[in-house]
Amino acid sequence: MLGISFAALASSLWANPNIDHRTISSYLFHPRILGGVGLTLMLTVVSMVVSTILGVLLAVMRLSKNPVMNAFAWFYVWVFRGTPLLIQVVFWGYLGLLYAQISLGVPFTDFTVFSVDTNTLVPAFTAGLLAMTLNQAAYSAEIIRGGMLSVDTGQHEAASSLGMSPAFTLFRVVLPQAMRVIIPPMGNETISMLKNTSLLSVIAVLELYTVATQISSQNLRQVELLVVVSCWYLFLTSVLSVPQYYLERHYGRGNARQQSPTPLGRIRAALRKTPIHAVSKGPQP
Amino acid sequence: MTEALAFPRHQEHPAPARPLLVATNVRKHYGGVEVLKGISLSVNAGEVMCLLGPSGSGKSTFLRCINHLERIDGGRISVGGELVGYAQRQDRIFEMNPREVAKQRSGIGMVFQRFNLFPHMTALENIWAAPVGVKKVPKQHAIKRGMELLDRVGLAHLAKAYPAQLSGGQQQRVAIARALAMDPQLLLFDEPTSALDPELVGDVLDVMRTLAADGMTMIVVTHEIGFARGAADSVVFMDGGVVVESGAPADVLDNPQNPRTIAFLESVM
Fold this sequence. Notes:
The complex is a heterodimer of chains A (285) and B (269). Chain A is mainly alpha-helical and 285 residues long.
């Protein structure tokens, strides 16, 4: 039943005279679209990496006993998680309206080291990167904090009893174990990030969706270009789930008594088995 | 376990007694509940002390105070003449910062009831992680030493196994090797056999007896009366946060004076 209704839906879309398949195929690998794909991927990777580092820092601050650090981390998460991402994107994009010049100097005096135009220092691309990274750091901080809390207190005690410093304990003992809990939700976050980069179209960053809307505003083939864009987003999310699988396996080591083989390993094992079967076709005992 | 496995070290090592650990009037409370009500005792270098007592008597808490896993509220503890967790400058005593405490702890090994091996590291990695990371021992040396220690606890063939692949007794022996890798001057055992299946207890106790015979200074919280009788130089019986009775194993275990000691020994033997 499900299969039939799905097939019916697909064929009605396929046969729809309002969709021009030639436009889709000609724009799927169009240089401008490919440029957008590249920028989207770059924005996603850079902001995920930087926001994860910031997230670890915020999580450690939030768990520290120092009340100033703790309050700062709480405030950061409160602000960046509590306001819509779209508004943050626009805010960073329009920073030049708020502060026309950015200068480094001694506050409340006339002494300045340098002074630049805000729009020169923070072009649309940087503003977009900043918005995505700072927002993501707030979410990542909470995920990482949860992961760190999931590590047994006995691990902290064992590390302490061996004379490990708090920083060494964090990087060698706590975080590697927390990773097992952190990675699946971070995979989700990466996929959200990939799709949320389309919000940067409001500040004219030339990522995938912006490029597509620019093209469709010229040729008026909105639906076709949305199909093109969706294909790319689907492809990229599928690609991103591969490193997640291997990261999960890496940090899951030692957790199961025996790890199940990877899909590639299974194929290899199956290939290796075939000639053995061929040989054993002789007289059976 | 019979006493034939115990090593009478007094005859073999007639070194002059010098206290390695001195605890004076140690107090500790959680909220309003006082768990340690003034513990005073000392352990000489090269000796083994067993701490006995019913659960809730404060023996584990006291053990954790010795390497500053718990902060004491009164009295003082010194190991090798150095105050634990505190530094004395002129006439005032300051709590050490986390890095100073860590440095001090590296000289005091601890073996836990629940092993607390690092699950993401193999047995061998568990052993060399701290010497390499904390004492900056060259990795090759630390790995070689780690293999020797694993061999000493009879597990050299399981060097590449992860803790989840080992039995409880094997995990505890790896944990002992891990503590030994830091060359501690004092080794603390917090009920090292309580989480083990009965048939695995013997292997761990054997390793501990060998250590005792080699002259390692050990403080052992345990319910294994046989081990205390055979391997300990002194036995301390605690109840309700105070030391009720202490002395040579033969005196405390075979000729107890205090009614609480008598009642406890009757219940466990």
